[in-house]
Specification:
single chain, alpha+beta, Ribosomal Protein L25, Chain P, RNA Polymerase Alpha Subunit, Chain A, domain 2, 2 domains, 6-stranded mixed barrel, 4 helices, about 25% helix
Length: about 220
């Protein structure tokens, strides 16, 4: 787990009008929920926050939060929710939750397939059914990604959630043993397209000498 430095300022005015004015000043309305104190309204610099998101993505982020004028010092918080406009261009609101390092938290972590499977080498297609999974663990144990080795998977094979072992300190909550990754056979259309390409190549090879003779 990486703790990212983040600065914020307290804000008093709430409501849609106040939020719009804040965004015009290149700031994002935010709120922090704490286990030790009541929730507090904040504002975050848009450029600073956008730089963090572009570099790290928006999943599984933990911050050292420094609030201007707060004498209690930095707070360890996690990004709980991020609201954006319809087009995904502008930040509308940020929810932060203060946590303790010994607190069990639920975090979404991206899934990453590692290696090239036997099935893919034989023409099969890799399908990542779940591109992110929720994990429950302490902040320090949060993985950057969930890496799944697919090297030995053949066409028709699959990795289910119960096949993934992240160690005794990390749990993936689930009620059913759902599929995370699978190798599927190519569709009929894809096979036909491949055959058509092969036929086209053969035709070009056959016609090439005739074309050369005609030019002569």
């Amino acid at each position: 787990m990486e703790l990212i430095e983040l600065n914020a300022k307290p804000r008093e005015k709430t409501g849609k009008g106040a939020a719009r004015k804040l965004r015009k000043k290149n700031a994002i309305p935010a709120i922090i929920y704490g286990t030790k104190a009541d929730s507090a309204m904040l504002s975050i610099d848009t450029i600073e926050f956008d730089s963090i998101i572009r570099k790290n993505g928006s999943m599984g982020l933990f911050f050292n939060l420094k609030i201007e004028g707060d004498s209690t010092g930095e707070k360890i918080v996690m990004l709980k929710d991020l609201q954006m406009d319809t087009f995904g261009l502008n930040y509308l609101h940020v929810d932060l939750h203060e946590i303790g390092m010994d607190t069990m938290v639920t975090v979404s972590v991206s899934v990453e397939a590692v290696g090239k499977s036997k099935g893919v080498k034989e023409g099969g297609l890799l399908q990542i059914i779940r591109r992110e999974l929720d994990v429950v663990c302490k902040p320090a144990d949060t993985p950057d990604t969930i890496q799944i080795d697919i090297t030995d998977l053949e066409v028709g094979d699959a990795i289910h959630v119960e096949d993934i072992d992240l160690g005794e300190n990390i749990e993936i909550p689930h009620e059913v043993n759902f599929t995370v990754i699978t190798i599927v056979a190519p569709t009929v259309d894809e096979k036909e397209a491949g055959e058509e390409e092969e036929d086209l190549e053969e035709d070009l090879v056959k016609t090439a000498p005739a074309a050369k003779t005609a030019e002569a």
